[in-house]
Design brief:
Elements: H1 6-32, E1 44-45, E2 55-56, E3 60-71, E4 74-83, E5 92-99, E6 105-113, E7 122-130, E8 137-145
Antiparallel strand pairs: 1-2, 3-4, 4-7, 5-6, 5-8
């Protein structure tokens, strides 16, 4: 009977443990409605064909979005925006997608703001929406800005 060396047994055990932990984290993220921010969708890829291709950061990004202060039949949606450019942004429209515990979109809405966001600045948008007990998470996307 061919036995595995001790180091290979440890390595295989470590890989198995890592796979188990990643599976548990994926399950928790799915069941609890947690969302890992995905900013690559907001990125623009440089069109140069050189080996120094880089991902450029868009001028405006969402830093965070969450539900806060659920009371009096309403909840407050808080959205953080960052102006990554040196130019002032004078208008922004943000789409909001409200999800249940299973990650299904059960409602959508939008908000906008015409307060200037100076270059390099972070600004917070807030919108009050009617409370729905099924909503546990909000995802947001920038619809337009200028």
């Amino acid at each position: 009977m061919n036995k595995l060396p001790f180091k290979k047994k440890i390595m295989l055990s470590s890989i198995g443990l890592l796979v188990l932990v990643l599976g548990i984290l994926a399950y928790i993220q799915d069941k609890e409605g947690y969302n890992i921010p995905n900013t690559i969708n907001n990125s623009e890829v440089s069109t140069s064909s050189s080996s120094s291709d880089i991902i450029k950061q868009p001028a405006l990004t969402i830093t965070n979005a969450y539900l806060d202060n659920q009371k009096n039949g309403y909840y407050n949606v808080v959205i953080g925006l960052k102006n990554n450019s040196s130019d002032t942004i004078n208008y922004v429209k943000v789409n909001m997608f409200f999800k249940d515990i299973n990650g299904n979109i059960i409602k959508s809405d939008w908000t906008n703001d015409d307060s200037p966001i100076l270059g390099g600045a972070i600004q917070k948008l807030e919108k009050f929406c009617k409370l729905d007990d099924k909503i546990v998470h909000v995802d947001c996307e920038i619809a337009e800005y200028h």
